[in-house]
Amino acid sequence: SSWPKARRPFQTDRLMELLDQWPVPSKDLLADQVEALQGTESGAHPFAPVLRSKGFTWCTSEPFNRVEWVHAGKHLGMSDEGRWWSTYSDAELREFLDAAEMEEVKKEFEGEFGDCRNELVFIGIDLNKDAIRSEMERCLVTDEELENFLVEIKKSEIGQGLGWGSAAASGI
């Protein structure tokens, strides 16, 4: 189940709270996990049937960096993948990308935040897609938090060079 791309960051504390509540499988074998999930009650945690998830995130605590999300069984890891392409100026990009690579990179740009986004896929058995979507959306910054986030971003050296904030609450 793909979770739609979100073009606003996760509020890091809410995301960490969600991850702390994530039900980690108690069995080592996939077959045991599947058997256990078949008896799961409908009121169970929406992430209980998730066996694997992957993708990348944009979080308020790392506003300029793409964070890889890798989850399989008992392991859930998040690692810094370096800066989002859109946090570099075109001149900086030309230093390490040729014209064809730059054109390819720019295909991912959308709206004022360029390629910054959350893009995750959840894999499991009998997933409640609506409940997963709701939990993930609850972790996104609100309009007010986005405004405050953008004010803080502008205080940093990288943030001063970005055009972020001109359309803060307009359908991101």
Polypeptide structure, described:
The chain has 172 residues and is an alpha+beta fold. It has seven helices and five strands, in the order βααβββααβααα. The protein has helices at 12-21, 30-38, 90-96, 99-106, 129-138, 143-153, 157-160, and strands at residues 2-6, 50-59, 62-72, 75-83, 118-124. Strand 2 (50-59) and strand 3 form a beta hairpin. The chain starts with a strand and ends in a 12-residue tail after the last helix. The model is unreliable at 168-172 (pLDDT under 50). It comes from Eutreptiella gymnastica. This is CobW C-terminal domain-containing protein. Residues 5-140 form the CobW C-terminal domain.
Q: What is the residue-averaged pLDDT? A: 85
Kindly provide the name of the CATH class. Alpha Beta
Q: Which word captures the global form?
A: globular
Please report the number of helical segments.
7
CATH topology: Hypothetical Protein Yjia, Chain: A,domain 2
- What is the strand tally? 5
What is the annotated CATH architecture? 2-Layer Sandwich
Give a short synopsis of this structure:
By secondary structure, the protein is α+β, with helices and mostly antiparallel strands.
Topology:
Layout: E1 2-6, H1 12-21, H2 30-38, E2 50-59, E3 62-72, E4 75-83, H3 90-96, H4 99-106, E5 118-124, H5 129-138, H6 143-153, H7 157-160
Antiparallel strand pairs: 1-5, 2-3, 2-5, 3-4
Characteristic key phrases:
alpha+beta; five-stranded antiparallel sheet; CobW-like_C; Zn_Chap_cDPG_Synth; Hypothetical Protein Yjia, Chain: A,domain 2; globular; CobW C-terminal domain-containing protein; 172 residues; disordered C terminus
